[in-house]
């Protein structure tokens, strides 16, 4: 098999206060996959995400992105390859205009002038937000801000897009629009979410993280219909949602 | 969700003043204010000329006079202080009607009011015709240290987010029957301020993470540096140069 885009081996991490969040996580994501990372609150999902682009450094084990180990000297290239979309778009969009914000990442990579403008327009086009290029982010709706946040990362042409709770706080229409956008992107996706129907809709494969370790890895349909697994790890399907009654998307 | 419009000063328009690059407007206002401050307070007519010049600038910006006038109200505390000066200053006194006023105080009050008013009007020409983020970009172009530019940029970006949080906290407080009527309410208000500080601090940390995730290495790259044409320099120079000519005439004549 080809080199995985994300290759996490035996990753362990304890916060400086002594709290251990990860206990030997193994995870492989191959090119073109869309994988959901499921798990209850406090399972270590966000901690894992922060290791993927080198914001946290592994206590033990290793993280490799398309063959490149996450280490201090590779940080810039790692952050280009792994695009993280954070949960609150107000944290992600910090520049005074949409254009400047989307340009921030590629400009840090040293891109300037026409090439930069082309990247910005292209990234916004992929999320359907080109018309808002000169707006300040705080004048956009929440759903629009989330889409621009995705564009800020796409502009860096990442090899894998990591989304932290992409559907949180979105109204149903914005939620569906974002799903359409994510499906249209030709990029590997790792999606951290509590929204199990969303995971089922978008990700053929899911990984369950619980108490800092991977406890299940398989087809989303199989995991969601495994009642024993679900209840053992505080995962619950929303009322009325039964994956058995819905054909796999 | 904090999506309201926060243009308390900026007036949307397309006048020649609006189109000038921000850094030229900042320089022009700064130079004009310097000239006004340097003018001896006895040169009454010079201040009259300055006033006309600023009025012309306001007219050129096509911002309604009423819009500018209501924003002049921030000057009221200064006016209050100026009104006191003739009464509390010492030195020779003049009698005006039943009042005995200090000569030096009258002159000081006059200088304070005229210089403050002229400075404020010139600043309003800048503020009403330039979006806050462009002011920040202009300061960056003028080579203000980039840490200061970044602090200001974040302030502009997050002012509404933070005031939105404050508003939601107030609504949550009032929904539980709280009203700030007496001194007893102060501890509650203080803890609100504390909570807001902690939230903003934590948000700052999350923003920093998001910046690192996109390759931030200590400096926000300037992607669209402001440029100005010779014609724009000439336009922006009209106000301060006319004021300077007035000052020179006032001093030499």
Task: Describe this entry's structure for a reader.
The complex is a heterodimer of chains A (249) and B (253). Chain A has a domain at 6-92 and 161-245: Rossmann fold, CATH 3.40.50.300. With 249 residues, chain A is α/β, with parallel strands linked by helices. Chain A is globular and about 55 Å long. In chain A, strands 6-7-8-3-9-10 form a six-stranded mixed sheet, with helices on both faces. Chain A has helices spanning 45-52, 75-81, 89-92, 98-108, 113-126, 142-154, 172-184, 196-202, 220-224, 227-232, and strands at residues 6-14, 20-29, 34-38, 60-65, 68-69, 82-85, 160-164, 188-192, 205-210, 213-219. The model of chain A has no long low-confidence stretch (mean pLDDT 93). Chain B has a domain at 16-138 and 227-252. Mean pLDDT of chain B is 88; it is low at 1-6. Chain B has a two-stranded antiparallel sheet. The chains are: A alpha/beta (249), B mainly alpha (253). Chain A binds chain B through residues 50, 53, 55, 76, 79-80, 83-84, 86, 88, 90-92, 94-97, 99-100, 103-105, 107-109, 112, 116, 136-142, 152-153, 156, and chain B through 1-3, 5-6, 132-133, 136-137, 153-154, 156-158, 160-161, 203, 206-207, 209-217, 220-221, 223-224.
